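Because discrete structure vocabularies remain unfamiliar, we turn briefly to a single example record, giving the amino acid sequence and backbone structure tokens:
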Amino acid sequence: MTRLSSPADHSAPVPERQLKRGVLGTGGLVFMVVAAAAPLTVMAGVAPLGLMIGGVGAPVAYLAAGAVLIIFAIAFTRMTRYVSGGGAFYAYIAKGLGRGWGLAAALLALVSYNTLQIGVYGLFAAQTRATLTDLFGVTVPWPVIALVALGLVLVIAWLGIDVGAKVLGVLLILESGILLLMAIGILTRGGASGVDGASFAPAAAFTPGMGGVLAFAFAAFMGFESTALYRREARDPERTIPRATYFAVGFMALFYCFVLWSVVIGFGSDQVVGAASANIPGLFFAATETYVGPWAATLMRLLVISSVYASQIAFHNAITRYTHSLAQDGVLPAWIGRVHPRFGSPYRASVVQTILAVVVIIGFAVAGADPVTGLLLWVNTPGVVGIVVLQALTAFSCAVYFTRRNKAASTPAALTAAVVSAVLLAVATYVLISNVGLLTNAPASVNVVLVGIVPATLLVGAVLAVWLRNQRPETYARVGEGAEPAAAQEVAA
């Protein structure tokens, strides 16, 4: 991988509405994407549930989800060279389906990323509180922990994307390392009853519960498309963005599958489902303690906390880049898009996002809600559904762009990938919504409301687009263009 930043990154002043240029290489982009997915949290916190409902074939679901997203990435990265803005999904959708759809997608992206990020503060607070109690006998109220984490995320974001990439790189290596250490420990000792390939047998991969596991699997790749959000901050984005996208998706698919398969071997393919059912939250810790040692299980508990913190930094950066792009396009007030003169960070967008998170966290705390079943599951779910919907819309947008907007940009591979991924992601959206109860553990009426936030947000965005087209046509003309302030009037004209 290329280096993260150059020594001169901090020296020159940054224009007030321009992000710092050329500070992220392929490695920095990969750290942003994979850290957002929080591999250790995905494995230790969610994968045991996949084993319980899908059986020993659960590892294959992560390969399947990764394969679908690799197909999507072929079209997505091909279109990257024709999208000048840093708005990722909404810029692509605006190019392919038109500015109205683009603006609706922009609003959905803001809502989805905010709900993903804010909801996870509940998980961070609950895990940190439990760890402090278990290891040190100290009990701290979860809202206090969440608010402290908010402040720490804001500090890293304020200091600039290059600082954030370095922090995420260290945290990601640590959390991936402990999972790899567990897997190696299991395989070198032969597991509970020998190493076998039962997880990859056709009968295991096509059990009825695999639909639910696929829902978890697609959620495990959240944020992989955010490589395109850092277009302006990337070095040679025509090359680094595709490289980082392919590497991130491929790494996560193979790593998730390998680690979960190793746990199947650790407990035995004939016993692991029962073990997962009996101890969902402690399955990975038990495997680590058995095959590596108690010290490693304790370290894993601490690294789960840092894993969630890393994902919070990554999602916060994604939210502020969407906000900055919308401010540049004139949809949001210009002041929110201001960039720090020294650090080159969209610091005002960071402050606004932090204030929003404070309001939500305090609201749930005052209501006496549980940080996991309330703040995490209920706030997080619309974000998961929204991101998968945006992926499907973006794939469809790529197909339209290659067939109607810019035929010269198309290649047979890119067009085929766009069409195939649009169909597969539409199916994935259906599977996710059909199994959304597994994510929320809530009554059907609550699930209808949570899922309904996604189409309602798209509708509000469409209404806003019509209003802008009629009342502020110069702003509407800039949607998805991502023009620099000096060129904004020319783009609108």
Residues 99-136 form the longest helix (38 residues). The CA atoms of residues 34 and 308 lie 12 Å apart. Confidence is low (pLDDT under 50) at residues 1-14, 484-493. Residues 26-485 form a domain with the Amino acid/polyamine transporter I fold (CATH 1.20.1740.10).
